[in-house]
Amino acid sequence: MKNILLLTDFTRKSENAIDYALQLFTGESCDFHLLSVQKFWEYTMDDLMVANPKDDIASALLNDNKSDLQKVKEALVVRSKGEEFSFQTMVDYDVFTSAVNDAVKKYQIDLIICGTDGKNGIIEYIFSSHTLRVIRNTDCPVLAIPEAYQFYKPTAVQYVLDYDDVFKVCGKELFLEIVTKFASTINIIRFNHGFQLEPINYREERESFINFCMPSPVIYELHKDQEPLKIIKKSLSSRNYQLQAISVKSQSFLERMISESHLSEIVNAATLPLLVLRDCNS
């Protein structure tokens, strides 16, 4: 059974992500954990004044979320009748990524699914969006679903290998399960510099990917010294993909500042569901 963490803030984007998750895992045995994280500063003094005086502050802050989350659960149970799905609910008022990491550890989560609206401005550029913070600060695969995206079977998948990424089989089990289930064709977009101190053996990398994904067809493209986002967008416009995938390593803030990774740009520009995989050494 898969343990899947569904992040919700009761907005359209999180509802859409949950809808996608149910369709993606149709026919499988899954335990879905719905998590709502409440931020203290979203509550006013009026909210606390109308709370039951017998309740502690935590209860006063979380009661509404618990009630809303229970309604979501009841609707999902009805909707998924006939599937091997179970649903658990939990609310927290911690720092967002801390609450997510606590849930990942406690429930042995295999995949985090969240919605993203694709909006980015100077504040998100500096401090990162919730989606980016989850990706960068957890050791669990993340599937980010754009707000307006409707589910389509991922029969064509684009896998991006960024400048600082080297393909390794370890940590890619979930990816293999998905492409095997949907008999996907995989298009690898490999970015690299024309000159590197530690050159990558592209032939070996290609053969490793092909052997790992058998019998799924694999197309391997090498792009040297080219702008990643332009190549990704060009590839998306020329083929009808339904899923993107990328793998990342855990990095400190300083490492991210000097890294060649285009993770932020790829996440913010994503118009398709984006599966972010973790390397085993993360």
TrEMBL record:
It comes from Nonlabens mediterrranea. Belongs to the universal stress protein A family. This is Universal stress protein. It comes from the Bacteria. CDD domains: USP-like. Residues 1-146 form the UspA domain. Pfam families: Usp (PF00582).
